[in-house]
Amino acid sequence: MKISKSKQKNQFSNLSYILFIYFSLLLGLTTTAQTKISGIIISQNGKNVAFVEIYDKISGLKYLSNAKGEFSIRLEKPGNHELVFHKESYAALEKTVSTSDENIVIILNKITNLSEVVIRKQKEKISALNKLKDIEETAIYAGKKTEVITLNKLTANKATNNTRQIFAQVTGLTINESSDGGLQLSIGGRGLDPNRTSNFNTRQNSYDISADVLGYPESYYATPTEALEEIQVVRGAASLQYGTQFGGLVNFKLKTPSKKPFEFATRNTIGSYGLFTNFTSLSGTKDKFSYYTFYNHKQGNGFRPNSEFESKNYFGNLNYQFNDKTSLHFDYTYFNYLAQQAGGLTDVMFNQNPTQSNRTRNWFAVNWNLFALRLKHKFDTNTDFSLQLFGLDASRKAVGYRSNRVSNPDILGTERDLLIGKFVNWGSEARFLKRYKIKDHTSAFLIGAKYYQSKNSGIQGPGSSGSDANFNIADAEFPFYQNQSNYTYPNLNVAVFGENIFKITSNFSITPGFRFEKIKTQAEGSYRKINLDLAGNVILDETKFENNIKDRNFVLLGIGLSYKPQNRIEFYGNVSQNYRSVTFNDIRTVSPSQVIDENITDEKGYTSDIGIRGQIDDNVTFDASIYGLYYDDKIGEYETRNPNGSAAIVRFRDNIGTAVTYGFETMFDWSLNKTFFKQNDNFVWNVFSNIAITDSEYLKSDAPNIEGNKVEFVPLYNIKTGTGIGYKNFISSLQFTYVSSQFTEANNSKTDANDNTYGIFGQIPAYYVADFSTSYKWKNWKLEAGITNFTNNSYFTRRATGYPGPGIIPSDTRTFYTTLEFVF
Predict the structure, then answer these.
(1) Fewer beta carbons under 10 A from the terminal one: N or C of the chain?
(2) What burial class does residue 109 get, using C-beta atoms within 10 Å of its C-beta: 0-12 exposed, 13-18 middle, 19+ buried?
(3) Of 368, 415, 361, 425, which Cα lies nearest the Cα of 584?
(4) Which CATH superfamily is domain 251-823 in?
(5) Are the beta carbons of 76 and 442 closer than 8 angstroms?
(6) Is residue 102 classed as helix, strand or coil in its secondary structure?
(7) Extended strands (E) in 533-619
(8) 25 phi and psi, to 5 degrees?
């Protein structure tokens, strides 16, 4: 699809006009000094207490005292403020202070041998609501639907990144579950395919970690849950700051270095089906230098035959604080794993025995190297700047027998399909945020730019006739392999984005924003076309060369609204344009059961949210919203005869048409102990419910029998509910999940229970699953244990058209785990 020069010129004119308005507003406003509260923090024996966390309960902002225990807090308005002071091994102190006070002295009482429940309660006092603040460093989230998962609050199977438990309080997510020990994350929602989280912009410490942000946005690397401090989720309105996607942002924020000079932690887990994991971390701070590093090893056999896996993951974070205004941060991540894939099943095979496998020669390997360097600088108390450089050097390799007839046996000595993908990319992102005042109200302006380029490659060829993990091309052994191809995928992306919080009153703000994108994607290479007659003789052997270039410029606009009628209650709403670039997988397929339209193009549309969220009496946290997602040129699949002339039935991938997804999402968490057991500091009890009711429809389509159908990957009901209870050092959690049935392609094919050929057509049936986890802490030791899927239900969450199938991919049966942790 080409854009005319006049249209490009108009788009650049629009961008220039938008930038002119923003900079005029910024330069025309004067900043004024803000009210401050300052003081010093000491212990009961008069010694200064360094690095104390300070939480403003009204604004939700967090601060940190310096190495001498001194603090100076910028406040939006004068008067009384409720502050919480917290440091490990000290009792949290809640205190109301006034801006008229001078040189405040805060005295903290040192306490030893705190129970796990008391420690958790103390941390909750300095925890904001389960959402991102309006401004986080150099990012703006005002008026957006955001969710924050705080990992130290969870009692769950963290060793295997159990997604059901980890994301239990994030509304409306659909999950592809697998038995690979949590090596990959696959979440979606609102009609977006969960496969490898490819419809979210996935980041770690705010930098990209997917294979290729535009061309191949799949996440083969998932940050270990045991290393995380929190997970930040921003829905579709994140498109303005984070680029072309409909799902939003998922950012994995790793633990920060310990304030002590040295801290050592190790966690060892054993579980069902040969599971063993080790997570060991070192952390500390000395003067201006701090570090956090971990090593994570996983291995297991899986609950099905031919499902063994082993992974090694190393992460290093180095930080240097030049002064109070400037710091430099470096991250390196290494991830390597090899997994055998049991393949997919037909409906008949799944109903007979969901733990079976007839694929013995399928292997998958990943090698990931991530680099990131980030500079943070404060020009003054109102002006922040960040610059990050990031890069990826990685590969993904897969070899296996991929017949679209799933029930066919895998015969030793026959050829296998081999795929080799290499991903080399780098980018930089700069952000500038300025707070300023209009009358007495603080507003904020953000401007940013991103440059990203990649040169990736993809090779498909014959794999060896053996059964081992051999990733060398066997073209000498199989000279007439029919799907051979060799491509490079150069990508270039330049973006400029901006948002502005206009604080109209002390309670109401408007946040407009824009993003200008220049995207150039290219696929250059060749594929070999071979036809054989019935006797196996070659009747056609030709190589076809391609050089497809897609170059486009466009502007995305959006606006968010926020109204806070009282403390900790907020009405919010937003609407934003969205865009999704076609990916490598959208252009070229390697699966014999899938065909792609050669004219497939980008998706465009809008997303919007309207909701209310907040906290009532410190006991109940809630978020209830309605949303709408409008897609134009939505990419999807439907069952049809192969349009290339074959009589085979395939899943055809195309821009199907215009679709809409809409629904109601609510999250409710009630701390029963704060309501009924306020006097018992050693007791904690909460219940939560997470309910999403979602509907969808294809409004129009040129494809046959699609208009009026439901959108794929949209269950009507998606419910997670549970409870957590703890006394002193014992804490446990119980969770129940129910997901109603969903279609997997656009013509809404019903499940054929007698299908013993493909396994790729039909619905994902409704399912429920229950999980139980518990932990006990004694001094520096902690013991965790649990049972996932303790009712031992047989179910599945995916019908794969290619890897790791094709066919039905069964989810885990009942599994046990236990973890022993030691911290020194």
Answers:
(1) C
(2) exposed
(3) 425
(4) TonB-dependent receptor, beta-barrel domain (2.40.170.20)
(5) yes
(6) coil
(7) 538-566, 569-580, 594-596, 603-616
(8) -60, -45
The rounded distance, in Å, linking the Cα atoms of 798 and 180 is 15
Residues near 113 by Cβ (< 8 Å), separated by ≥ 6?
none
Burial string for 767-779 (b: 16+ CB within 10 Å, else e) reads bebbbbbbbbbee
3-state secondary structure 696-710: EEEEEECCCCCCCCC
Give strand pairing partners of 671: 686
Q: Kindly report the CA angle at 73 between 72 and 74, in degrees rounded to 5?
A: 125
Q: Domain map of the chain by residue range?
A: 251-823
Tens of pLDDT, residue by residue over 655-679, are 899 999 999 999 999 999 989 998 8
Here the tokens at position 813 are 């049966």
Residue segments in the chain with a per-residue pLDDT below the cut of 70:
1-35, 58-60, 75-77, 126-129, 585-593, 644-648
- Helices and strands per DSSP (H, E), number in the chain: 7, 43
Q: Which residues pair with 731 in a beta bridge?
A: 726, 775
Q: What is the pLDDT of residues 637-659, one digit of tens each?
A: 777 777 765 656 777 888 899 99
Which strand ranges, in their side-by-side order, compose the sheet holding 93-98? 62-64, 53-56, 80-86, 93-98
Phi-psi region of 347 (alpha: psi -120 to 50; beta: other; left: phi over 0): alpha
